[in-house]
Design goal:
Number of domains: 1
Bound molecules: 1-O-pyrophosphono-5-O-phosphono-alpha-D-ribofuranose
Order of helices and strands: EHEHEEEHEEEE
Oligomer: single chain
Strand content: 25-35%
CATH topology: Rossmann fold
Low-confidence stretches: none
Radius of gyration: 15 Å
Shape: globular
Helix content: 10-25%
CATH class: Alpha Beta
Number of strands: 9
Structural class: alpha/beta
Mean pLDDT: 95
Largest sheet: 6 strands, mixed
Strand order of the largest sheet: 4-3-2-5-6-7
CATH architecture: 3-Layer(aba) Sandwich
Length: 172
């Protein structure tokens, strides 16, 4: 397996993330939001995005996984780590690398909503709408991408490629 081509360069990613950071900074200026990163794919997006948020905020993380080692979702989402912050009455922004079938974020948002936050919004770097199986849309989207298996910038294939600084398409 190798990279076939670069879909989004490091510069394209960082430019768009600065824009998203500015949008969130305007909308959450007075709200001290809790940014919740979905482990593990969102790590790079989470750190770069939150560095662009220019007001007080909190961090937390939730773990969810459904893909195992392959390119196809198992369809079963497992909670691997819960948040530690009391979310009741808080403004929550879930930060995720990719909205693909939507099964992961459907599960994660249902889980977090049961904690009664004041608001809950979804911010995803990549949206792949062609593959959607769950009824869910993101509030903030970095890029809408075609139905290709992408890796890099946190996204893996068999746990590798997460440390590429760009988003690439794997050779079939
Ligand atoms: C990937 C990705 C998202 C999810 C999106 O996670 O990071 O969390 O799949 O896919 P979906 O919309 O089809 O549910 P994965 O389960 O591979 O775990 P990881 O984040 O640890 O890589």
């Amino acid at each position: 397996m190798e990279i076939d081509r670069i879909l989004l360069t490091q510069e394209q990613l960082q430019t768009r993330i600065r824009e998203l950071g500015a949008i969130l900074s305007a909308e959450y200026a007075e709200k001290t939001p809790v940014f919740i990163g979905v482990l593990r794919g969102a790590v790079h997006f989470f750190t770069d995005l939150t560095l662009q948020f220019s007001h007080p905020c909190q961090y937390d993380f939730i773990g969810a996984a459904s893909y195992g080692d392959g390119t196809q979702t198992s369809g079963r989402v497992q909670l691997t780590k819960d948040v530690m912050t009391e979310l009741k009455g808080r403004h929550v922004v879930v930060v995720e690398d990719i909205l693909d079938t939507g099964l992961t974020l459907r599960f994660v948002t249902d889980w977090l909503k049961s904690k009664q936050p004041a608001s809950l919004k979804l911010c995803v770097l990549l949206d792949k709408p062609e593959r959607r199986r769950a009824d869910i849309t993101a509030d903030y989207i970095g890029f809408t991408i075609p139905n290709e298996f992408v890796v890099g910038y946190g996204l893996d294939y068999q746990e590798l490629y997460r440390n590429l600084p760009y988003i690439g398409v794997l050779k079939p």
